[in-house]
């Protein structure tokens, strides 16, 4: 992660998300039951912190901005991602370490699965 991204993230507001102990496997699996959210999960796992969450950059140019925002909210509320608001920008990151501590091996299993 670039140092300017780290600084911006620290300056921003962390949007509401469940604590690690409150991440529920049913909610996680429900969130990933949608192919768009599974695509976003894989994208965040591969790229790390995302600042520009435009539809085009995320490979979702066929979706409206509001639809992408909805999917990002579902991922955050299920505990899969963290989102920081910095002005008009949003920084989104997979909560890999939190998920690994809560459900050991789950992230790797999901990433190695053949579903899109």
Automatic annotation (TrEMBL):
It holds the Pfam family HTH_5. Residues 17-114 form the HTH arsR-type domain. It comes from the Bacteria. Gene3D superfamilies: Winged helix-like DNA-binding domain superfamily/Winged helix DNA-binding domain. The keyword DNA-binding applies. InterPro entries: ArsR-like_HTH, HTH_ArsR_DNA-bd_dom, HTH_MetalResp_TranReg, WH-like_DNA-bd_sf, WH_DNA-bd_sf. Keywords: DNA-binding, Transcription, Transcription regulation. This is Metalloregulator ArsR/SmtB family transcription factor. It comes from Streptomyces albiaxialis. The lineage of its organism: Bacteria, Bacillati, Actinomycetota, Actinomycetes, Kitasatosporales.
């Amino acid at each position: 992660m670039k140092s300017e991204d780290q600084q911006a993230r620290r300056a921003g507001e962390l949007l509401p998300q469940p604590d690690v102990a409150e991440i529920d496997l049913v909610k996680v699996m429900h969130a990933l039951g949608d192919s768009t959210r599974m695509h976003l999960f894989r994208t965040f796992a591969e790229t790390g912190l995302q600042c520009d969450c435009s539809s085009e950059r995320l490979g979702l140019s066929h979706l409206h901005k509001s639809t992408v925002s909805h999917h990002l909210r579902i991922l955050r509320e299920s505990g899969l991602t963290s989102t920081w608001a910095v002005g008009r920008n949003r920084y989104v990151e997979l909560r890999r370490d939190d998920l690994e501590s809560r459900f050991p091996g789950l992230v790797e299993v999901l990433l190695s699965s053949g579903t899109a």
